[in-house]
Design brief:
Helix content: 25-40%
Strand content: 15-25%
Distance between the termini: 33 Å
Strand order of the largest sheet: 15-12-14-13-17-18-16
Shape: globular
Largest sheet: 7 strands, antiparallel
Number of strands: 18
Oligomer: single chain
Bound molecules: flavin-adenine dinucleotide
């Protein structure tokens, strides 16, 4: 049994929504990488479930038989996430990480009882929101367990309450991005959280991974939007966050934000909301260089003048992404910056005026709304393009990091060099600044290379080299994709042995049997 809004098990999203690779793009790909058609394996089935009948019966006693699913199709749809390695494995017909059973609770009470069953029957539990993890966050280390349960939150999709006076809303974790926005819009409200995975990722997943959206400069990162949350742990249920600000000890919300299903199941999230914007305007800017554009972003952030959206492509990304390079100057396309302004008409007009004046003063060239609208129109399309490129034997993947402004140039150079060296001649490494703060920014890299015989090994070498470079440069291993299993060794280096000890101590207090997402995070 599947549910509405399922993604294709071997591709991103709904392939019917993807447009075919234009002939001109195909020609370019043929020229640069060569075309090597890669058909996906058909008819693969997950391994037989290993969970015992008594465990299944105990799970069914909590949620009802119809919400305990052992069929191959459902388990295939709950296997791993949507990183390029995940897609490559699925395309090769490898469903080896499939859960043994998918369980769909209706509410917090059922989750409390399900976790008790998991402990009693030694079952690993993997909370599943939208399934868009790109860091191996949905793969449990199964060796020590008598089965793996995918705890699918698809039935928990309510807008629980709206407090218009305080401008907060409480949402259930299984709501996907568009579903949450649709419910809030009935009240004239928005969350404003638009990661590229918006169409499929869930509220619980945003909180569990500390997601950051394309409009986070204006609305804030997801963790900054959360004013409270409820979490079910094997040791009991906890609600954190009871005031807009508090000096009551350490902030326990921060224990669960980014906990990636390892400490508890997030069952509701109370978020700050905003009025639906009446106006959305997106404007392109040209900068002579990445350094010049980055300096302008820093000036804006430090002047307290950030737009709702701000992003800057480096020279290579600008050249590749511009279908019409003449739009920003044929000889020197420079670097494209997108700024977006959302809100009430007068506020948008005032901020756009102030930002434009500063950017012109700093040497930016206003390209008008066309490049901005083009970006806004295609902002969720890139994952479909990745599928088209994988189809013809081009390895494509992304990674991201963040650092302080004073370290930005070094981090950019080091990670780019690590990727170029490990991927070898003919590879393409692109970068943009995806998020901006007063003190620093995030760097988001995209790579493309001709697929070798073993693309998983090819990417794993490059990813390790880039991750080593991030840690050596003193940056974070992830600004918004989270840790999962993929970033674990570098995360341990980033937080150090005492940091790991703290997280392990919290884990053993909340989940003494270790049933929650084993192998993820720490
Ligand atoms: C094409 C693409 C683009 C992306 N773009 C962005 C982006 O712009 N910004 C960004 O931040 N991320 C992005 N991501 C990464 C991903 O979408 C985010 O990490 C997202 O927040 C995950 O949400 P999800 O609901 O899909 O979680 P899932 O993939 O289902 O789960 C992610 C992790 O959270 C845990 N989890 C999920 N729900 C709960 C819950 N209720 N309680 C406890 N643990 C839970 C899972 O066990 C898992 O470890 C992108 C991914 C893809 C594939």
């Amino acid at each position: 049994m599947t549910t509405q809004n399922e993604m294709h098990p071997q591709r991103w999203g709904d392939p019917a929504a993807a447009s075919a690779l234009p002939e001109s793009a195909r020609g370019l790909i043929e020229l640069v990488f060569g075309i090597d058609e890669k058909p996906s394996a058909q008819g693969a089935v997950p391994p037989e479930p290993v969970i015992g009948a008594d465990g299944v019966a105990a799970l069914a006693a909590v949620v009802g038989d119809e919400h305990v699913l052992l069929d191959d199709a459902t388990r295939a749809l709950r296997t791993r996430g949507k990183s390029t390695p995940d897609l490559l494995r699925a395309r090769a017909g490898d469903l080896g990480d499939a859960p043994d059973v998918v369980v769909r609770p209706a509410d917090q009470g059922e989750i409390e009882r399900l976790l008790a069953v998991a402990v009693a029957h030694n079952l690993a539990v993997v909370p599943f929101g939208g399934g868009t993890s790109v860091t191996g966050g949905l793969v449990a280390a199964r060796a020590a367990y008598d089965g793996v349960v995918s705890l699918d939150l698809v039935r928990m999709k309510a807008l629980v309450s709206v407090d218009r006076e305080s401008m907060t809303a409480t949402l259930e974790p299984g709501l996907r991005g568009p579903e949450a926005e649709a419910l809030l819009s009935e009240h004239g409200l928005t969350l404003g959280h638009y990661p590229q995975s918006f169409q499929y990722a869930s509220i619980g997943g945003f909180a569990a991974t500390r997601s950051s959206g394309q409009s986070s400069a204006g609305y804030g990162r997801f963790d900054a939007l959360v004013v409270g949350l409820s979490v079910v742990t094997p040791s009991g249920t906890i609600s954190a966050g009871s005031a807009p600000a508090s000096a009551a000890g350490p902030d326990l919300r921060q224990v669960f934000l980014g906990s990636e299903g390892t400490l508890g199941v997030i069952t509701s999230v109370t978020v700050r909301v905003r009025e639906l914007p009446a106006v959305k305007e997106y404007v392109g800017w040209r900068w002579p260089s990445f350094d010049a554009g980055a300096a302008a972003m820093r000036t804006l952030a430090q002047a307290g003048l950030l737009p709702t959206v701000i992003r800057l492509s480096d020279e290579a990304e600008t050249a590749i992404n511009l279908a019409d390079p003449s739009a920003i100057g044929q000889d020197n396309p420079g670097c494209l910056m997108i700024t977006g302004f959302e809100g009430a008409p007068s506020a948008v007009a005032a901020r756009r005026r102030a930002v434009s004046a500063l950017l012109i003063e700093l040497g930016g060239v206003d390209l008008g709304e066309e490049p901005g609208e083009k970006w806004a129109h295609g902002r969720f399309d890139a994952p479909y393009l990745r599928d088209s490129l994988l189809d013809v034997g081009v390895l494509v993947e992304t990674l991201e990091t963040a650092t302080f402004w004073s370290n930005r140039a070094r981090l950019y150079a080091d990670v780019k060099a690590a990727l170029e060296t490990s991927l070898g001649e003919g590879s393409i490494v692109l970068c943009h600044i995806s998020h901006v703060y007063e003190t620093g920014c995030s760097l988001y890299f995209t790579i493309a290379a001709k697929e070798q015989d073993d693309p998983l090994a090819q990417w794993s070498v490059a990813k390790a080299a880039a991750s080593d470079a991030m840690i050596a440069a003193g940056a974070t291993i992830t600004h918004h994709h989270a840790v999962g299993t993929d970033h674990k060794p570098w995360f341990a280096q980033e937080i150090g042995p005492v940091g790991v000890q703290v997280l392990r101590a919290i884990k053993s207090s909340l989940d003494p049997a270790g049933v929650l997402n084993p192998g993820v995070l720490v």
